[in-house]
Amino acid sequence: MGITTKSLLTSTAATLFLAAPALAETITVTEATEAAITDALAAAAASESASTVVLAFDGDVEIADTLAYDGRSALALIGSGQTISTANNVTLLAATEGADLHVVGLTLAGPGGWTVENRGDLDGAAAKGIFVDLRDDQTGTATLVAEDVTVRGVAGYGIHISDCTLADDCGGGQTGDGDGSDAGITLTLRNVTINDVGNGTFDGDGLRADERGPGGITALITGSTVSMAGADGIELDEGGAGDVVATIIDTRLVENGAYCTPALFADAIPDPDEAEFEEGAMAEADIPGPVTGTPDNTCIERAVDLYDDGSVEAYEFGLDLDDGIDFDEGGAGSIHAVFLRSTISRNLDEGVDFDEAGNGGIDVQFIDTVAEDNTDDGYKNSEEDAGSVTGLMLRSSATGNGGKGAVFEEEGDGDLAVIAEASSTANNDDSDDTGIEAVQEDGGMGALTLIDSDIADGTDLDGVDLK
User: Fold this and answer.
1) 173: which residues sit within 8 A by CB, 6+ positions away?
2) Domain ranges in the chain?
3) What are 298-323's pLDDT values in tens digits?
4) pTM, rounded to two decimals
């Protein structure tokens, strides 16, 4: 069968599963076959203790079906540089019962070649690299750790952990549907590369976490690269009462968001792409309808606002491109994020896009970090309700972005306090004098403090004092 099994008590096992029983089962796979790995995962699932599956063979493995682990105890899958690949549209590795998962030293590779014009026969289910699906009755914290891992060439999400009853139809954090368990989510990525994923389906992110219950999302991402994802490089969606807490260190988010390739859709967007009307002047039947006949009609967004009498107040069409990193928090929780020595570059929408709705706030720090040549804003931070916005740019820059260099906006009753120290902006917003935009729209205080900073393209302030 190509596997051996034994129980052991070691510091390694304890390190892998700090919350698991000390007695862990180690299963060694000695044959480079799909069957041997499948048997090892089945043996681990049958165990009542945490298990470590060690791939102790030379060479790579091609699989036809998903390597599925349906146990509930924690699992570590430890490789030493092997590649597990598939020529099919199948998820490579899945923990189907919400088990803690720790993956080390592996490349997981799909067939690649996916584009909006080459999606194959996906039947609405684009395969993923790594997938953890939480149970509806799960409690505590679900943990996903990836170290020295590469994921590439899958049609859907590169890495996905889901606490949502609607799975891939969960939607965005503020407006998405579905319920979740009582569990929270913890993600750790160390030296992980996610490349060329999500290009075979709409909204296929590099790393995606969906949390729809009372728990929060905590993420630590170090020394990693997410590039050429079809949608957001990283998207964390928290739709309940929990916080999003993220630390991003020495990480690159580059060239993400281009599934809806602009050159393929530009001619399909109506001209004019937006318009406003007086009440009673325009019936909805007389404005352009939803776009059809494109490689993927969901790529073109259509928004219509109506007056009380049913006539059209305004309409707008736009191409749905995506960001380098996107956090959405839609409940009572907050967004807390620290970026250190990271690069957010050439993404097809915003570089950083943080949106918080509800009673929580936004607290962000960009330290020794670069946002450059993104199609829209370099750093965008928007709080819609009663929370406050606190921001720090320290030795950081925003240059050449198509939108503003950095945006900090508080639309409700909270305060806004932003400091830019030893930082710079230039050539943003098509050189239209918007290096930093700071907005406080309602009943709160607003302050932007500049210390030894060069904001070459100027500031745009509303309800905010410059200090």
Assistant:
1) 236, 237, 238, 239, 327, 328, 329, 330, 355
2) 3-259+325-360, 262-319
3) 999 999 999 999 999 999 999 999 99
4) 0.93
